[in-house]
Amino acid sequence: MKALEIATPNQVEPKDVLHKTMENSIRSKKPRMAICYDFDKTLSPNDMQTFTLIPSLGMKSDEFWEETKDLAIHNLMDNNLAWMYQLIVRSKPLRKSISKSYFHEVGKDIPLYNGVESWFSRINEYAEKKGIQVEHYIISSGLKELIEGSSIAKEFSRIYASSYYYSPDGVAEWPAQAVNYTNKTQFIFRIAKGIFEEYDERVNDSMQEKDLYIPYEKIVYIGDSATDIPCMRLVKSKGGFSIGVYDPDKDERDKVYQLYNDHRISYYAPADYSDQSKLFSYMKQIIDSIAAKEIMKTEQEVLNIPVEMYAIYRDLKKMSDETLLSEKQRDDFSSIGGLIRGLIEGKIE
Ligand SMILES: [Mg+2]
Questions:
Q1: What's the CA-to-centroid distance between 106 and ligand 1, angstroms?
Q2: What single-letter DSSP state applies at residue 153?
Q3: What is the pTM of this model?
Q4: Are residue 1 and residue 108 in the same domain, yes or no?
Q5: Are 88 and 68 in contact (CB under 8 A)?
Q6: Is pLDDT above 80 for 213?
Q7: Are residues 260 and 306 in the same domain?
Q8: How many domains does the chain have?
Q9: 35 occurs within a structural domain
Q10: Residue 305 is part of which domain span?
Q11: Near ion ligand 1, which residues have CB within 5 Å?
């Protein structure tokens, strides 16, 4: 009977242990990707205020938006600040307080496109199988508090949208955030850099590609209209994916055709998020392509382990020949170089 061979510490080469440890650390990293969504007419078939909020003020939706538009035009006002102001003004004569809890309540009534509710778990599960972690973000000009009340709020890492400042008794008093089409782009930078808080000005600091929380080529933006153009353009120009969606029932495609023709988006599809939809199929292709690139990147990083050590060894070797240094210093560099050399796989000179 053959004697059982027991490995002793002396039989293990330090370079093998080092390489394995570094390789394991590289291979255990789980790459992230982000999917960013506009809300109105992207995840939901109409403007979120239209369903319950505006009727609760005794107004028709068209009437409210017409008034808001006039207010903006005659006062050179931002459209979002105009509707936020108008909501407060219109609620006062009714002695109705516009509170955060009321918004959350009303948010429950917002309808969503087909398949939206199960989309997130299906996407997360598919990506998980491919070794990718997906984070979902809302970037909307609509009202954050309404989205927070919706059934899908829990799916998002962050909800970036317009919101109110509330008095101590919980009544909306003043805009805290007014998100319009151009300042929507700041949130793409926040997600990429991992500088998430709205007040944090470090979002403007320069950051190297390797330090990004989510590199731009792993960001997807989904929107429906002209207000999404700056985000679509930013994401697409930085190597990410921009998608235009249109209402599947109305089938009005002017906007997506125009966006595609103007190279703002890389794909368009009906806003159908169900299992068999074109959108789900395309998103799986995006995840596949990100996963394939990540595999190549991981292999390159593993190959780079001895290469980087070799570069250090070469530099130390040069220093050990440097005549400007004392003999003691040259000896020190030589002995550290010898140590490093012992950690590099393969024969080198
Ligand atoms: Mg929209």
A1: 19
A2: G
A3: 0.88
A4: no
A5: no
A6: yes
A7: no
A8: 2
A9: no
A10: 1-30+299-349
A11: 38, 40-41, 224
